[in-house]
Design the sequence.
């Protein structure tokens, strides 16, 4: 059934709730803490892509402290941003269409730090020792991943522009 006058289908609140919990469970299995996963999924399904602490708490039936900790984690991962409501002291938390791009791009800095640490490790144990060869192979893997991520991100920008052309 469509919303009157919009031509858009009505939301199924139970279906949306099931999706939030199911997608959050998938994120948890991938390593994200449970509460940030639930908050992230709730923001993804909101039409505005944003919500206040009170709105998220009510939607997910969690405390303001739970929302606060979840948003702190998500902001550190570059998956959400904080913004002030005009004329208010309340913050809104927003998920952006390019959140995956931003999160992956920010992972590149982590990969570079791992590479630096691995180079140090190889030097400390010797490149020809069993440990040095293992660390060297791990370093080569992350160097490969870094180059491939750059290429993937370039291709994604082109694909996104073609597929989701902004008006």
Sequence:
């Amino acid at each position: 059934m469509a919303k009157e006058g919009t031509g858009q289908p009505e939301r199924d609140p139970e279906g949306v709730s099931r999706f939030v919990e199911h997608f959050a469970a998938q994120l948890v299995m991938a390593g994200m803490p449970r509460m940030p996963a639930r908050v992230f999924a709730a923001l993804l399904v909101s039409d505005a892509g944003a919500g206040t602490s009170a709105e998220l708490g009510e939607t997910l039936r969690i405390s303001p402290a739970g929302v606060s900790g979840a948003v702190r984690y998500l902001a550190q991962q570059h998956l959400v941003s904080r913004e002030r409501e005009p004329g208010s002291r309340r913050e809104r938390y927003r998920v952006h269409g390019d959140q995956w791009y931003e999160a992956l791009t920010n992972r590149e800095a982590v990969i570079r730090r791992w590479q630096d640490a691995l180079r140090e490790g190889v030097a400390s144990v010797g490149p020809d020792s069993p440990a040095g060869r293992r660390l060297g192979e791990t370093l080569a893997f992350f160097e490969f991943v870094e180059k491939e991520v750059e290429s993937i991100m370039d291709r994604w920008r082109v694909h996104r522009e073609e597929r989701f052309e902004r008006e």
